[in-house]
From TrEMBL:
Keywords: Amino-acid biosynthesis, Cytoplasm, Diaminopimelate biosynthesis, Lyase, Lysine biosynthesis, Schiff base
NCBIfam families per the UniProt record, alphabetical: dapA (TIGR00674)
PROSITE patterns per record: DHDPS_1 (PS00665), DHDPS_2 (PS00666)
Record protein name field: 4-hydroxy-tetrahydrodipicolinate synthase
Top-level class of the enzyme under EC nomenclature: lyase
Record: residues binding pyruvate: 45, 203
Catalytic residues in the record: 133 (proton donor/acceptor), 161 (schiff-base intermediate with substrate)
Known partners and oligomeric status: Homotetramer; dimer of dimers.
Reactions accelerated catalytically: L-aspartate 4-semialdehyde + pyruvate = (2S,4S)-4-hydroxy-2,3,4,5-tetrahydrodipicolinate + H2O + H(+)
Length: 294
């Protein structure tokens, strides 16, 4: 249902930490002009954890309105509270999002039956296509393949963002579930390999900074062209590495601010602005790709 390079969009902010409306509009336009295949709004990279519900709904509605059906918009609506996730997913459906991205509940550490019942309740509760999001490095909650297999039988659960970077796990999910749901990467350094295994795309942090390059990598992999995908990914590798030298989205928000989207200090506590000692490495990775920075 969704494929290619799907940007995990930052939420541009002013120096005081407020949503930068002008920068948000310009950023969405930047992606429409550079072949991003879908936009994931207010996910982890969009700082959903520190946006109020009002801000969450506002940013999502603005993205939906600006995109105006040109490409799909996927709303990050997950929570460790099933009731809260249901409320956010309902709101996303009402404003016209094309799908919801639902992270595994964090902190409260549900078992596999709890994960199944959580996602089933959301799928039963809101008639919108839903994508599971497995990122145990952040959530300490791993949606195991057996549970994914069970959830794949629910008609409006249409995909999973598998962000472990474990290609053996990805291959197992593709073998077991690809006939019923799309397997998507959530790990930029291994994304093209996952697509070549039979995955459908990548929900990407790097695509914020280099949308055309990430589109081209995914397109080559989807076409089965390993050589082209590998060559392009080798170009992107220094940027992949630099964007994860600190907790996401600290580096990518700095990079986007240097490109003119938001303020250099526009990030909310408990995250802090990008440490000056790391600036040169990320700036160099961007310059290698011909990305202009202030």
């Amino acid at each position: 249902m969704f494929q290619g390079s799907m940007v995990a969009l930052i939420t541009p902010m002013t120096a005081s930490g407020q949503v930068d409306e002008a920068a948000l509009e310009a950023l969405v336009g930047f992606h429409l002009d550079n072949q991003t295949d879908a936009i994931v709004a207010v996910g982890t990279t969009g700082e959903s954890a520190t946006l109020s519900h009002e801000e969450h709904r506002y940013v999502l509605k603005r993205v939906v309105d600006i995109v105006d059906k040109k490409i799909p918009v996927i709303a990050g609506t997950g929570s460790n509270s099933t009731a809260e996730a249901l409320e956010l997913t309902t709101a996303a459906h009402k404003v016209g999002a094309d799908a919801a991205l639902l992270v595994a509940p964090y902190y409260n550490k549900p078992n596999q039956e709890g994960l199944y019942q959580h996602f089933k309740a959301l799928a039963d509760g809101v008639a919108i296509p839903q994508i599971l999001y497995n990122v145990p490095g952040r959530t300490v909650s791993d949606i195991l393949p057996d549970t994914v297999d069970r959830l794949a039988s629910i008609s409006n659960i249409v995909g999973i963002k598998e962000a472990t970077g474990d290609l053996q796990r990805a291959a197992e999910l593709i073998e077991r579930c690809a006939d019923r749901m799309d397997i998507l990467s959530g790990d930029d350094p291994t994304a093209f390999e996952l697509i070549l295994l039979g995955g459908k795309g990548n929900i990407s942090v790097t695509a914020n900074v280099a949308p055309q390059l990430m589109h081209d990598i995914c397109a080559a992999a989807l076409a089965g062209d390993r050589e082209t995908a590998l060559n392009l990914d080798n170009k992107a590798k220094p940027l992949h590495q630099a964007l994860f030298c600190d907790s996401n989205p600290i580096p990518v928000k700095w990079a986007m601010a240097k490109m003119g989207y938001g303020d250099i200090n526009g990030i909310r506590l408990p995250l802090v602005p990008f440490d000056e000692s790391l600036h040169a490495g990320l700036a160099d990775a961007m310059l290698q790709l011909g990305i202009n920075i202030d």
